[in-house]
Design a protein that fits this description.
The chain is mainly α. The chain is built from twelve helices and six strands. This is YkgJ family cysteine cluster protein.
């Protein structure tokens, strides 16, 4: 951020609708946001899960970290970084009346509000689907095999056979849920997190290395 931008923010007291925060991605959900999802205004297919232990970037602390719990976030639009509901043409929000807590408290000129709630009462997959026993059991089974604590250790030890097994398991679960369960594949990033073929690149693995493991 250059000096002029810092000075601008220092003098700012209201949202200028510059769109920068929305361009960086969607918000995470907290317990008080549950009614938004239950109303259907934002649906599970609009979300993705950062799973416990997954390498992430902490925007408040401004440093790499690992997710301490599930973090449910609004997905990005068309492979871009911007929030799915950000309307670039007029820099508006498609769900403004039902925007989550993080959007409501975010003030780029005063980060204290966001910092205060950032880690608090985060909504998790369990909160939303544990009552659907068959589906929740699938999520738990996937988590047991593909837990990031296990993946991180396997990468650290260069146990590529174990890493490859997780990648293939993750891939097959998603495929079978479509073929056998007729499930909308837009739900998978919420149910199982982002594909391991994508997230393992954060450990320094190249796309080609990952493809080789998938193909075995």
């Amino acid at each position: 951020m250059n000096v002029l931008k810092k000075e601008h923010i220092a003098k700012q007291t209201t949202c200028a609708r510059c769109g920068i925060c929305c361009e960086k991605g969607g918000p995470a959900f907290h317990g008080c946001d549950r009614p938004i999802l239950e109303s259907g205004r934002i649906v599970l297919a609009d979300l993705y899960t950062l799973r416990k232990g997954e390498p992430v970037f902490d925007n408040v602390a401004n440093r790499p970290d690992t997710a301490p719990t599930d973090i449910l976030k609004i997905r990005s639009a068309n492979g871009m970084s911007a929030c799915l509901f950000y309307q670039r043409a007029d820099r508006s929000c498609g769900v403004y009346a039902d925007r989550p807590l993080e959007c409501r408290v975010l003030e780029c000129w005063n980060p204290d509000g966001m910092a205060a709630i950032y880690q608090e009462d985060r909504l998790a997959r369990k909160d939303l689907i544990s009552g659907l026993s068959d589906l929740w059991e699938m999520v738990l089974a996937h988590e047991e095999v593909c837990a990031y604590a296990r993946l991180s250790q396997s990468v650290k030890e260069k146990n590529w056979e174990a890493v490859a097994y997780c990648i293939r398991y993750d891939f097959q679960v998603r495929r079978l849920m479509v073929e056998k369960g007729n499930m909308d594949d837009r739900l998978f990033d919420f149910l199982f997190g982002m594909p391991l073929t994508v997230t393992l690149q954060r450990y320094g693995l190249s796309p080609q290395q990952i493809r080789n493991m998938v193909e075995g």
